[in-house]
Structures are given as C-alpha cells and as structure tokens.
Amino acid sequence: MAEKILFITSNRLGDAVLSTAVMANLLDRYPQAQVTVACGPLPAPLFANMPRLHSLIPMAKRPRGGHWWRLWRAVVGQNWDLVVDLRDSIVSRTVMAKKRLIFRALPDEAGRHKVDQFAEKLGLQMPLQPRLWFTEEQDRAAREHMKPELGPILAVGPAANWAGKEWPMARYQALIATLTAPDGILPGARVAVSAAPNERTQAIKAWEGVAEERRVDLMHNTDPAFAAACLRYVSLYVGNDSGLMHIAAAVGVPTLGLFGPSDDRIYAPYGRLTRWVRSATPKQELIRAVDAGERPLTSLMDEIELEQVLAACRELMQAEAAAQQSDADLRSNG
After folding, report:
1. Domain containing 296: what range?
2. What pLDDT digit, counting tens, does each position of 211-235 carry?
3. Are residues 281 and 329 in the same domain?
C-alpha cells in the first residue's frame, strides 16, 4: 500500500526551493508514496509537477494564525504514514501519524547551511540536493522564450526583497559589459534579467548598454516554475541573495550569489556548480551600523568589488568545464 505523506514547507521562495532537497529524498526513499504538500502561495507552483503529488495546499497567511487552522481542518481527517514539518507547526503534532519528522532550525550562530540542517535534524542521509520538476509543456514554453539555439545567455538577478541586499547597479552593468565583451568569458552573450514584476523598475537598469536584441526578459511572469524552466537554459547566473538565486542553483546552472547583510553560511546557493562572494564586514556588524545610523541601507553591498565577482565567475565557469569533461570521461569509459 502506498504511504501517505504530509509535507509542510515554507511560504518563502528561497526556503521552499532548499526544502525540495528533503522532498527529493522522500520521493527516492518512498517510491510508492502519495504526497500532500502545504506551502505558501508563491512557491506552490514549484511543487505542482512533482511525481506522486496527491494534493497541493497553498497557505495564504491569515490573521491570528488562521492559515494554520485552515490547514489543520484540511488534513486532520487523514491517517498519515509520515508527517514532515519544516515549519515546526502545531499541525504536525495534532494529526494522526505513524511517524513525524519535525524540523526546528539551529540558531544563526551555529552557521550551518539550511540543507545541512535538514539532513542533521531530520536524520536524512547526505548528500541532499534541491530538485525541481517540469512538464514537457513548461519546457517547450521555456525554450521558445529563451531561444537557446541563438547562443549563450548570461542571467543576472540585480533586485532583492530588501534594498540592503542589492549590489550596486553600476557594478552589475560593468559586470555584464566585461563578461560579454569580445574577450570576456561569454562573448556576445544575450543578457537575461530576472526579478519579480514589482522589482522591474529597478532591475531593468542592468540592461543599460545592452542592445535590445540581446535582452531576455525574465520579469514579466510571476510563476516561479516558469522562471525555473527558463533558467535551465542560461550559461551563468549572478545575483543577490534571493529565491531566484536558489532556483538557478537547483536547476544546475553555474550560480554565483552575492551576500552582505544576509548569512551566506545558511543561505549560500547549494550545489556543485555554485560559488558566493560576501562583504568583508560580517552580517551582524552591517545591520548594527544601519540601525545606529552610521551607514545608509543602500551601502551594505558596497564592499564587494567588481574584480572579486569577475574572479569568482571565471572560477565557476572553469569548474563547469572541468565537470563537463569529467562527465564525458565517465561516459566514454562506461
């Protein structure tokens, strides 16, 4: 008989992407399981096409925790074989279940990546790896939009949900110009800008100096699953700490994350083709300086120099080339 699994995960996009590492592990361990997923409305499309999905419950926040009450009413009538709760909620403790795996995050001071915390606290075997799922229709739409046959694409994510996490736009513009110059690592590449629709006004500034025919718009669609399907066709992603950064890493794109007042130890992009650069000043000191009025919010990423990011991009692309060669050698020897 197929196991019935209830999986409760984040309302935030980045955390939900990282939690797919747990989901992938469960799907591999329980190949007959039927899974009910409860998460926020924004990341819900990322789970819509996963195998053996029984039902998807988007949880829009409600006053006084009303969303938890609605979820409890939706799931309390089932006898669950396994409940996995990454939100440490009351729901997982008040439904019938043969087994419960409840995650409570370590304090930030521990400095452990969120995926590693999942493995440790839930008793899952490493390595874990975030995984996203697509339909053939989504892939076809993404190919039509990205047109990979026209050549390589550099993707940037210059916006963030907080101004303090945004690397200066002038440096993004210089990065794009350098990487796509005739002597750059992606000469003549098209440039995709990814951001939420409400971040468009800020994000499109990254295209300054980029010819219209070289621009690829990843800001017009609010569906993160479509963004994920599109990002599979880029050659390199560079962006601020954001959900889109985690999506790029999850689909296997060489991904470079930029960090200042957020914790790279916990939220660095996760995967073998990932790197990150952070401000020299620790996160806590950056936030203290802003709170004390000693520096403006928009200065928190200023310490990351263009040359640091360019060097990390070169290292990342060299690592990808080495990984591709290693994979090719394995295939030829297999």
Report:
1. 141-333
2. 999 999 999 877 999 999 999 999 9
3. yes
Percent of the chain exceeding pLDDT 70 equals 99
pTM equals 0.95
- Is the Cα torsion angle 217, 219, 220, 222 positive or negative in sign? positive
Q: Are residues 151 and 36 in the same domain?
A: no
User: Residue 91, by phi and psi: left (phi above 0), alpha (psi -120 to 50) or beta?
Assistant: alpha
Place of tokens 């939900």: 16
Domain with 323 in it: what CATH number?
A: 3.40.50.2000
One domain for residues 79 and 180: no
Neighbours of 67 (CB within 10 A): 19
| Strands, E assignment, the chain | 4-8, 34-39, 53-58, 79-80, 82-85, 96-97, 100-102, 153-157, 190-194, 215-218, 236-240, 255-259, 274-278
Total domains in the fold of the chain: 2
